[in-house]
Every structure is written in structure tokens, then in C-alpha cells.
Amino acid sequence: MQHRPAVFAALLGLIRAGSAIGDFWVQSDFCARVKGASDDHPVTYQDPVTEEKTTHGTVDGRRACLQHCLTYTATQAIVAGVGARALGIKVHPGAAAAALVISFGTHYAADRRVPGKGLLERIATKTGKGGFYKLADFGMNGAFHLDSAWHHGWETVAAVVATTKATPR
């Protein structure tokens, strides 16, 4: 399959674009703020329109993270699907589904950032990056950068999976 490297590069670019759109444009303010809430670390959300304050725990945090990951993955599917079609790439439906499952699952695991219990914080701490994870100064946010690197890595895996049985249109 001589075209697989080109298909990989195209799909990775499309998946990455869909990720950025899904994370920064499609994700609601509510989901962004509440997705890490837990009963031990509740989040108070103030509606920007009504200014009403509500407090959210574990159930709402999981629900907000799930909603975000669904819209995020749907955005990736749309961007990658439309882009692949425009580029003349026919992605195998099973490979596309597997790639989106990888993206969804790893995104949820990373974005459920419950303080002290979140996957990325635990990995950062165990690998000596705990200080960087907690950095929020000098124009830097370590958690954001480690989150982005996590997503980029898994999007690369998803793009490799998505190229399985891909053919020209």
C-alpha cells in the first residue's frame, strides 16, 4: 500500500484540526469548567448570561466530560470525513470507528481532571513532571501542555488505525 503514508499524513492533519475545533470552538464554557468536578472537589459555575451560580460534583463532572467528548469526537468525525472525501480518500468504516473510539476514550480519560486523581496528573507525578503539570505562571500552564501532548500522541495512533484498509476513491 504505497499511498498509506500520504493517507496517514492527511488523516492526522484532519484529525488534529477537528480536535482543535472540537476542544476550543465547540466545547461549551460549562463543559470546560465542570468536566473535572467531583464531590471531593466541587466546581461552582457562574452562567455568563444569567450570572446564576450552581455547584457541581462527580455526576455533573462526568456528564460534562461525556458531553464534551461526544461533541469533540463528532467534530473530528465530520472534519476528517469531509476532508477525506475532498482529498479522494476512502476510509474503511471499521477503521474510522476504531480511530474515533481511541480518540473518544483517551480524551475522556485525560479531560476528567479531578484534582489529585486525574490520569494525566498521576502520570505527570509518576514521571517527575508533577511540578510542570501544576505550573500556572509566566504565561505557561503545564496541565494544558501535557494535555495537548497526550491528545496529539493518541491522535497519531488514531490516524494510523484510520489508514487501515484505506483506498483511493
Explain what the structure shows.
The protein is built from seven helices and four strands; from the N terminus they run H-H-E-E-H-E-H-H-H-H-E. The protein is mainly α. The strands form two sheets. It has a two-stranded antiparallel ribbon with strand order 1-2. Strands 3-4 form a two-stranded antiparallel sheet. The two termini are 14 Å apart. The model has no long low-confidence stretch (mean pLDDT 94).
* Largest sheet, spatial ordering of strands: 1-2
Rough shape? globular
DSSP strand tally = 4
Task: Describe the main β-sheet briefly.
Answer: 2 strands, antiparallel
Give the radius of gyration: 18 Å
Number of helices: 7
Q: Ranges with pLDDT <50 over ≥5 residues?
A: none
Distance between the termini: 14 Å
Key terms:
169 residues; two-stranded antiparallel sheet; two-stranded antiparallel ribbon; 7 helices; 4 strands; 66% helix; globular
